[in-house]
Automatic annotation (TrEMBL):
Domain of life: Bacteria
Name of the featured protein: UspA domain-containing protein
Pfam family, one: Usp
Similarity annotation: Belongs to the universal stress protein A family.
Domain UspA: 1-146
Naturally occurring in which organism (per UniProt): Aequorivita soesokkakensis
Amino acid sequence: MKNVLIPTDFSENSHNALRYALDYFADIPVNFYILHVSLKTPHYQDEEPEGFFEEFAENHTIHSPGALLKEELKTCRLLAKNPNHVFYPLHENILLVEAIRKYVSEKEIHYILMGTKGSSKMNRNEIGSNTSEVITKVKCPVLVIPEHAKFTKIKNVAFPTDYNCMYKNRVINTIYETLKLQKAALRILNIKSTNHEFTHTQMENKGFLQDFLKETKHSFHFLESKNIEAGIQEFVETWEIDMIAMVAKNLNFIQRLLFRPTVKSISYHTKIPFLVLHE
């Protein structure tokens, strides 16, 4: 039984992430913990509910978080496609990251699932600050769902790597679980600005991945590009990538790829879910 934590701010984006979760985990039993945190950090004070739940609250004069959570769970149960999906409401008046850390430990959470935008209407081109905080400060796999993502069968998972580190069992096992759950293939991608040969360490780490993946569908790819974001965009389009898995080893790199791509033509972060892994 998997335990999945889904923070919600009652925005349409949160509601979309919930719908995605129900489809993504449709084939296995899951305990879903739906968490709402009332206390906001100072730089989130401009945020307010929007979309589906804002309209719902206005039409039904529901204002308390407890009542909104109750309605949220009711909606989840109606949308659930597996009778072994169980939903639990959680409400806290502490900071979001603090609350998530608490329940990751208490409920033995396997995955956190979040949308890429909060309910702030101020900056529509950047990932929500809450999601960024969780990815960088909570050591638990995070499935990040773009605002407009709709679930489709996941056939190809991209895994960008520079082969500079040996991945720990926790990372490898989570990747394997993902491939098994979705019956997907892993496409390992190395992007470099110049075609330099691999070091001895890089060759060893690539060999480790080859050994681990020998019984799963996979392929190794090299792409020469001076811009990593553009390289990933090209790879996503060429190989029809449905998900990107990344290790949160270099948080600045994660921020660059997922939160603020520097090239205007980049769109993968608005359509493709990201699985961010922690060692």
